[in-house]
Fold these 2 entries.
Entry 1:
Amino acid sequence: MAVPKRKISRAHRGNRRSHLSLQRTQLVRCTNCGAMIRPHTICKACGHYRGRQILRAAND
Ligand SMILES: [Zn+2]
């Protein structure tokens, strides 16, 4: 268990916790079909990644 050497002030504690908030998931547009996808992932709608077809198209 951590034993406090000195009391952390509310401001000091708040400054530390200023980086702890949850971030909204970042989304970018697929360059092939324009769907909103997470960066650095294959597009689920068309199966493209970095301009290349990776997955087979859904209507194949
Ligand atoms: Zn796409």
Note: The first strand starts at residue 28 and ends at 29.
Entry 2:
Amino acid sequence: MSQVDVVIIGGGISGLSALHYVRRTKPELSVRLFEAESRLGGTIGTDNIDGYSFDWGPNGFLDREPLTLKLCEELGLNDDLERANENVANRFILRKGKLRSVPMKPPAFLMSDILSLKGRLRVMGEPFARSAPDDDESIYDFVQRRIGREAADYLVQPMVSGVFGGVADQLSLKSCFPIMREMEQEHGSLFKAMIAKARAAKAKGKKSGGPSGPGGWLTSFRGGLNRIVDQFHKRYESNITTGQSVTTITKENDCYRIDFQDGHTEQARTVIIAVPSNQAATLVESLSNGLAGALARIPYAPISVVCFGYAKENVGRSLDGFGFLVPSKEKRRILGSIWTSSIFDARTPEGKVQFRSMVGGDGDHASMELSDDELVRIVRDDLDGIVGLNSDPEVVKLYRWCHGIPQFKIGHSDILSEIETELEALGNIHVTGNAYYGIGLNDCVKQSHRVVSKL
Ligand SMILES: Cc1cc2nc3c(=O)[nH]c(=O)nc-3n(C[C@H](O)[C@H](O)[C@H](O)COP(=O)(O)OP(=O)(O)OC[C@H]3O[C@@H](n4cnc5c(N)ncnc54)[C@H](O)[C@@H]3O)c2cc1C
């Protein structure tokens, strides 16, 4: 048995960034990271097949989080950063079987066919919406209250299922979009808040918004997101052990004892658990029932990423944008499709295009029962009905994530309070990852930074 100051369990972006922050900010501490799989990265990965590069899970991050940008710089990755192309500000939503462009400016919105005239006028009435209830409101209820049911069904619900893999009337607004709640509370209206934000950005000479949503530009690395994982590995190889699965953590005197599947054990003064919360729950069972119970209450939605490579001439429309989302009212199985070849350069061979479609989410757990063939057929049929396809895909790659995306349902903030209380009582044990304060890569980096600065 060896003893170190800090053990990090899990080698996804959360564990790897925690390792980086320990090494950088607490060089006096000895640290080891253990990863169960033979490779690092967790849901981050990139495959290169026949000239296509396919991201396994995430395909980028928004460049609005200074910590992530600083992390890239500290890893020496600035020259490898790749910003999404400008034309991907073009986004589509399926309505009545047709792709409709999502208008980005108020005059275009008023003229657009994305909502009925009544629906558009209701959106414009947002400043007069009734004020917020005090309790934990669902995203759907919030949106319906502020901009109406049609906008909730056709603009926000598809975004919620595309980004969170969630169901809008079950997810908590204050946990998923705390900023929206703050905007309403501070300005009494989202429109007024956006105007104030745009004015402030203008005064600072900044552009607000960009591809992939307000306040951020979709960013990856040349050749795919796995570049950052390779760089972590190269930099910190001596602190990392792969192929080592932790089974339990117990307290032994002033230290923690960490048991591994292969029978060996380690001791550490501090443990950072960077595995999904449902797996973290099993690791801490003998340490604290309360903590294990609270961690286990965070549910996950399954998600499958289905990547197709096509010759351009076999696709019935030009893929002139980011891709599209599908409202559940349209009754398709795919949640949406991202046109990777239009977003990032050099992800497909010349003359080819790449679709990256999502199936599953909290509204479709049954999708995990589908065979690969069924999944491919469903995606092919849905895409054919929407963009028109003249052939089968030239290349197919599937990635299935049974516990894909944590769901911040109503009451999530109460679970977090319980977790924090239990962790405080234990001392020197911390959790990081996307199950707590935000589901994206930026959130993982931020949470790991927060945890390490507390050590
Ligand atoms: C399909 C999909 C698309 C996404 N798209 C985006 C996107 O475009 N942008 C974005 O910002 N975010 C996106 N996300 C979210 C993002 O991928 C996650 O927030 C992030 O990768 C989570 O990282 P993590 O390190 O917390 O967890 P993980 O990546 O799950 O890593 C946890 C690691 O812990 C290891 N582990 C588990 N148990 C043990 C054990 N007992 N012992 C040792 N090791 C263990 C696992 O093997 C794994 O490597 C997406 C997620 C999915 C699934």
Note: The longest strand covers residues 300-311.
